[in-house]
Amino acid sequence: MKNRKVCLVVGASSGIGKAAAEALAGRGHRVYGTSRDASRVTTANVVGLDLEINDDHSIREAVGKILEAEKRIDAMFYAAGFYTAGAIEETTPEQIHQQLDAYFVGAHRVTRALLPHFRKVGAGRLLYMSSNAGDAALPYHAIYSCSKAALQIYCDGLRYEVEPLGIQVSYLQNGGVKTGAEASFRRAAEPVAAYDGPRDRAIAAFHRMQQKGPEPKAIGATVADAIEARTMKPVIRADNFSKLIGFLGAVMPAKLFRSQLRKSLDIA
Questions:
Q1: Which domains does the chain have, with CATH numbers?
Q2: What is the torsion angle, in degrees rounded to the nearest 10, for the CA atoms of residue 65, residue 70, residue 73 and residue 79?
Q3: Quick one: which of 261, 259, 140, 132 has its CA closest to 200?
Q4: What was the pLDDT predicted at 44?
Q5: Which terminus of the chain has fewer CB atoms gathered within 10 Å of its CB, N or C?
Q6: Predicted local confidence at residue 210, as pLDDT
């Protein structure tokens, strides 16, 4: 295959990461997909690798195995993580650390492991899964929103540093996607009764958005398109909802925007 790329998909055992690995492999790229347990990576023509996003040694070992086998890595898509929901007062500092480790620090660890190779060859693509929550904090999902906002600012800063070296950086946003994430999210650990009503309605509304969203396959195709494009866009808004939220956040009065967001999560 002409322009066949060697791709690393972090978090390839389920959801959007699995869909991205499937799309890339289906187009003939050489794909390595990671999970804490490589046996959970079951997509055809995707090589599974053990990788723990909080362990530098694990990450370096996985990257080393790819380079040993392929002599190069051309692109990385980061889709690992989970989300925490609940009021800020209910969320422990330990949970905040865990959330940031999943979406932000873990992404940084993988990035640091890849950059020496990318710098050496003068090329490479880094694509990260973000969320509309990175632009507009979601009520009762503030810690999740913080982790995505941090990731987006990280990408913006990283882009200044590595673009002159031939390395492209982008993040992708999408609205609710039917990934099954609502079955494995983490609730804030120390519930406060004062938040019971609005907190539970907001979490339920967020889950409904996911359940009504598209299957991950469409997002997987968007990831593959970005990695194959001549130049990745700095921000990829994959669906009309993401484009609309970005536009409304920029043009609507803040009070009106917040009111509409509250209504969308059933806490108006």
A1: 6-264 (3.40.50.720)
A2: -60
A3: 140
A4: 97
A5: N
A6: 82
